[in-house]
Write a structure and sequence with these properties.
The protein is α/β, with parallel strands linked by helices. It has one domain: Rossmann fold (3-Layer(aba) Sandwich). 37% of the residues lie in helices and 12% in strands. The protein contains four helices and four strands. It has a four-stranded mixed sheet, sandwiched between helices. Strand 3 (112-115) and strand 4 form a beta hairpin. It is globular, with a radius of gyration of 15 Å. It starts with a helix and ends in a 5-residue tail after the last helix. The relative contact order is 0.23.
């Protein structure tokens, strides 16, 4: 979670931002208590980190009105992480990011959470401004870099 935050905070503000998420974010817990941001011990699940990544995309959308910010679920695809038994199509898993990066389609002109070129409703905590603020504060404290 630290890397997407730092990359977002340190790069010049983009016109579009696309953060990789997962449908598993729906099973994440919107709590930051006791997290080890340095990664020396496991304190969060994959679902928790993807919930945070999706909330980061929403926080950017809210804080940087000139940036259209998206979180994308590519599906369960056969990668080293997804494994050989993954049921998704690897090529289909990349199409949404490609489309969001270059499209002039009005549907992509507003940020959101996407799966296979369709906007979907994310975990309720994604739009919780208090959770977003706590996440940004914790990451700024850990990294010394603020998302201005």
């Amino acid at each position: 979670m630290v890397a997407p935050y730092l990359l977002t905070a340190l790069l010049p503000r983009p016109r579009r931002l696309i953060i990789l998420s997962s449908g598993l974010h729906h099973g994440g817990h919107p709590t930051l208590e006791g997290l080890d941001w340095a990664g020396e011990q496991e304190t969060a699940t994959y679902a928790d980190t993807k919930l945070m990544a999706t909330a980061l995309a929403a926080a950017v959308e809210r804080r940087w009105p000139e940036t259209v910010s998206h979180a994308v679920d590519p599906g369960w695809v056969p990668t080293r992480m997804g494994g050989a038994s993954a049921t998704g199509d690897l090529r289909e898993g990349t199409r949404t990011q490609e489309w969001l990066a270059v499209t002039a389609d009005d549907a992509a002109g507003v940020g959101g959470y996407w799966h296979h070129r369709r906007r979907e409703e994310p975990h309720a905590a994604v739009h919780d401004e208090q959770f977003q603020g706590q996440l940004l504060f914790a990451l700024a404290q850990h990294t010394g870099v603020t998302l201005d």
